[in-house]
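Postdoc handover notes: sequence design on the structure in folder B. Input tokens:
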């Protein structure tokens, strides 16, 4: 319950300000910022995240320069800033921040080390640094297992499953997804929702659209009930993409209208934005929106800084949907776009996107 979590965070502000121990106060501020960034990101509160990041930047600057501050506090202060950078600014900046604290990791407490591994692993995967990202997850998993932290273990196995899913490695995905299910804590809403979202994506990519649609709708209901708003645009987009694949134009159009009614700030943050841009590009092209190509081009270029996987996928989708016009504007041939996918273990997506488009074009008919 992210709303309740935010109230709990806010409730300690007065206690921190009243503290006379500067060491305790600095540690508490670092913790508050870390959890504030987590909550505001999950609520897709980009303004709240930006406000917290500004404070985190000041605290991180002080922490990095003051050797008297304990390593765990220094690392926690930087992790908040790295989280914001990863989801709203630049993955390169996030990794640069993580590099600044790399030497401190052996000195920090196990939980803080796990947090650092989770953030570095997530950003590494987004930049197609698969082996590095999975190494970070597995290292953090070892620490969480030693502490018997089942919540953290479930989350890390889920991240590993997501990595396998992104690479189209269905066997590893199933193996790691089962690890999540074996942990008893998986019946909590958040863990179960994230696992179900991964399973929905797996069904979609493996050519099981009806199964995927059912799972996406189930996850959408959970996301809305828990306040995990960052997933709403992604899930609605997937429901729309599947409706097109099944030839259900009315459902796709209704979903598109519902997606447009979501707040713009919900279309920011950690979700896979390429799905929203993919759905938007196809719908706008069919409705003869003259700015559709340009908007997809901008989104493709923006994702190069945040999520390289999405950047490569959108470059390929732009060529499939808009043809040579997109290729010329993006200064990249179809061969080059396809090659980028294969060189970054995303070759499976090239074929999937082509099959999806052939199916949609064969089954759908839009009025002029």
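Designed sequence:
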């Amino acid at each position: 319950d992210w709303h309740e979590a935010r109230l709990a965070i806010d409730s300690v502000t007065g206690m921190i300000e009243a503290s006379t121990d500067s060491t305790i106060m600095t540690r508490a501020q670092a913790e508050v910022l870390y959890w504030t960034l987590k909550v505001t990101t999950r609520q897709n509160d980009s303004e709240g995240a930006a406000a917290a990041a500004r404070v985190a930047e000041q605290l991180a600057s002080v922490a990095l320069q003051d050797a008297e501050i304990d390593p765990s506090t220094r690392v926690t202060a930087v992790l908040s800033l790295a989280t914001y950078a990863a989801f709203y600014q630049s993955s390169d900046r996030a990794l640069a921040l993580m590099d600044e604290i790399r030497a401190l990791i052996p000195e920090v407490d196990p939980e803080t080390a796990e947090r650092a591994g989770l953030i570095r692993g997530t950003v590494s995967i987004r930049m197609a640094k698969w082996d590095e990202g999975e190494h970070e997850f597995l290292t953090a998993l070892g620490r969480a297992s030693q502490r018997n932290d089942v919540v953290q273990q479930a989350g890390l196995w889920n991240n590993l499953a997501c990595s396998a899913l992104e690479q189209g490695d269905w066997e590893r995905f199933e193996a790691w997804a089962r690890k999540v299910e074996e942990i008893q804590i998986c019946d909590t809403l958040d863990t179960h929702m994230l696992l179900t979202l991964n399973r929905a994506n797996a069904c979609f990519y493996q050519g099981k659209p009806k199964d995927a649609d059912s799972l996406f709708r189930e996850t959408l209901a959970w996301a809305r009930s828990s306040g995990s708003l960052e997933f709403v645009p992604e899930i609605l987009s997937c429901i729309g993409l599947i409706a097109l694949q099944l030839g259900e134009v009315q459902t796709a159009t209704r979903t598109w209208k519902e997606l447009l009614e979501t707040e713009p700030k919900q279309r920011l943050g950690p979700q896979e934005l390429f799905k929203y841009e993919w759905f938007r590009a196809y719908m706008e092209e069919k409705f003869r929106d003259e700015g559709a190509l340009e908007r997809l081009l901008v989104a493709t270029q923006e994702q190069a800084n945040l999520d390289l996987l999405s950047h490569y996928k959108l470059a390929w989708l732009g060529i499939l949907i808009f043809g040579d016009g997109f290729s010329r504007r993006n200064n990249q041939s179809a061969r080059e776009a396809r090659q980028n996918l294969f060189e970054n273990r995303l070759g499976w997506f090239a074929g999937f996107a082509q099959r999806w488009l052939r199916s949609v074009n064969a089954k759908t008919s839009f009025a002029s």
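Context for whoever picks this up: The mean pLDDT is 90. Don't rerun without checking with the PI first.
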